[in-house]
Amino acid sequence: MFQRLKARTTIMFLATTLVAIFLVSIIANITIFQKFNMYMEEEQEDKIKSIIELVEYAYSLDKQWNRRVLENIDVSPVINGFDIVIRDIRGDVIYNQDMTNSMMEMHRRMMGGMGHGMMDDTNTTDDYRTEIHKVFFNDKKIGTIEIGYEGPFMISEREVDFTKGINMSILYGALFSIAVAVIMGIYFSDILSKPIINITKASNKIRNGNLNIKLKEENKIIEFKELTYSINHLAKSLEEQNMFRKQLTSDISHELRTPLSILQSHTEALADGIWEPNIERMEVIRNEVYRLNKLVEQLKYVADIENHKFEITKESVNLSKLLMDIVENFRYQFVRSNVELKTDIDEEIYIMGDRDKLSQVFINIISNGLKFSKEGGFVYIELKDKKNYILVTIEDNGIGIPEEDIDYIFERFYRSEKSRNRKTGGSGVGLTIVKTIVEAHGGTIDVESKEGQGSKFMIKYYDR
Ligand code: ADP
Predict the structure, then answer these.
(1) CA 170 to ligand 1 center in whole angstroms
(2) In the predicted structure, residue 108 carries a pLDDT above the cut 60
(3) Atom in ligand 1 nearest the alpha carbon of residue 410
(4) DSSP codes of every residue in 20-33
């Protein structure tokens, strides 16, 4: 049971509070009683001073030691609790008052009671002290007074009650704080454990293949909020990947089936002698083999990217020339498809890069532009030196990309519903490869597109 987060946090909270309460009680107790002792010692000194003043005042009434003087001293409450011995100038005892009254006993009892852990100096009961002071009248010594008392000071019942009261308040305070700590511990551990329990439940669902989950992301604790967001994101991307992979299986089989059936029908017709072999038919066969090859090559690329086997070897590349050559190679296909190919390529722009892989970037984007263009449309290719970076823009006025698809077009095997319907072919990995190559060159690729109006791909290179 105590293995549960909720129980653990409650216990931890309680333990911390108990330690805090214990320390505060001890420190409060020690400091309060230190101050109390100091206060009481000062009080004692004041009392002794008052006794001396009393004796000197009593003497001043008749200016000699007589009965009236001694009676005055005897009835004064100032001397209560003290043993007093007064001697005249010759040293003869003229007054002796033993502390035999109940005060003495009471004092002993109280000091004993307080000794248990409450005061530092626990031996006060055995500490009988006597002080001898000279007594003066008009600056002339008239005798001595010996004051005896149980030290270090006398304690009245009120003072004992006061100390007991403080101890009880500390005790009640501690008990009350413990009760509050238990309640708050349970409450706080609930706050902490609830989101974790929810997240655990959600990840268990994900483990069991149920990816259709969405946790509430509102939480005041940032870490929980981020964790919930990550779990939601994880479930969503797993679901998307699942969907893409399922789609891929059907796409790939479709992609394979078309060229394979063309190859099969053509080769069978040729083998059976139904068709005479001629250049046109051989060209069809060659194109289909080329299509298959391209598909296998793309799949290998993706496998390499997934296995982190993707490497580039950089050299100085004349990007202007590279782009112009690619444009020339495409020209015939554009003419055939009745799509205009427009360019604005600045000359002599160099970057550090992998020539073959860079070619692949532009071939993929330009062939997409052509593939998704309408008849009579255009594809515009621009290369500019923007000082901080080199910018390649490839724009078309074709079918465009639906808003809901834009975030996914660089994902592996992603193809928009529209492009699938056009039967243009493709595996949905072209842009994944493009992005991987551009980023491996330290560059960036961005896309702007509007459905029905066209798309614009912008690639920035920083490494010249
Ligand atoms: P594909 O092999 O399907 O072309 P890509 O990775 O090259 O794969 O492209 C992914 C998807 O992005 C395409 O299926 C298409 O939906 C969309 N797309 C890419 N380029 C364009 C474009 N120029 N115009 C419209 N849609 C595009």
Answers:
(1) 76
(2) no
(3) 6
(4) HHHHHHHHHHHHHH
pLDDT at 88: 92
CB 244 within 8 A of CB 413: yes
pTM: 0.52
Q: Which protein residues are within 6 Å of ligand 1, measured from CB?
A: 364, 368-369, 372, 396, 398-401, 409, 414-416, 419, 426-432, 455
**Alpha carbon of 81 to ligand 1 centroid (Å):** 106
Q: What is the SS3 assignment for 249?
A: helix
Which atom of ligand 1 is the closest one to the Cα of 431?
6
Q: Which atom of ligand 1 is nearest to the CA of 396?
A: 23
- Distance (angstroms) between ligand 1 centre and the Cα of 448 equals 13
* Contacting residues for 36 by C-beta, under 8 A, at least 6 apart: 162, 163
Each residue's pLDDT tens digit, 273-313: 999 989 999 999 999 998 889 888 888 887 887 787 888 89
